[in-house]
């Protein structure tokens, strides 16, 4: 289960390479910019995925002020990326690596 905490003012279409996933739910979050923390809003309840989000996906929209949860099984070992599909975001650090399995030769430590 991955959780995308969106503490920005924009919706982000998040894409995870090499895997398909199911959208589980979304829930309100609280952002404390002074303390630089984010947490699930106490007393809030998760909202199920929308009807059009049923089935396996490779992209999900992470809305502002919410955590978006997705679940998946990683079967393919290797090094991949996950990123926002908005190019300006992707080019400004919203493309991140992830690895399945043991470290690989030449991988940065
Ligand atoms: Cu984005």
UniProtKB/TrEMBL annotation:
* Plastocyanin-like domain sequence ranges: 2-102
Pfam name, any one: Cu-oxidase_2
Superkingdom of the source? Bacteria
Q: Which SUPFAM superfamilies match?
A: Cupredoxins
Q: Which InterPro entries match?
A: Cu-oxidase_C, Cu-oxidase_fam, Cupredoxin
Which GO molecular function annotations are given, in alphabetical order? copper ion binding; oxidoreductase activity
What's this protein's name?
Answer: Multicopper oxidase domain-containing protein
The record lists the organism as Nannocystis pusilla
Q: What is this organism's lineage?
A: Bacteria, Pseudomonadati, Myxococcota, Polyangia, Nannocystales
């Amino acid at each position: 289960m991955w959780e995308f905490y969106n503490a920005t003012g924009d919706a982000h279409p998040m894409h995870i390479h090499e895997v398909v996933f199911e959208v589980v739910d979304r829930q309100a979050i609280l952002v404390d910019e002074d303390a630089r923390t984010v947490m699930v809003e106490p007393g809030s309840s998760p909202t199920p995925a929308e009807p059009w989000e049923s089935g396996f996906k490779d992209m999900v929209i992470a809305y502002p002020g919410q955590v978006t949860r997705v679940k998946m099984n990683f079967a393919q070992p290797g090094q991949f990326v996950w990123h926002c599909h908005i190019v300006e975001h992707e080019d400004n650090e919203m493309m991140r690596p992830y690895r399945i399995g043991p470290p690989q030769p030449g991988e940065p430590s």
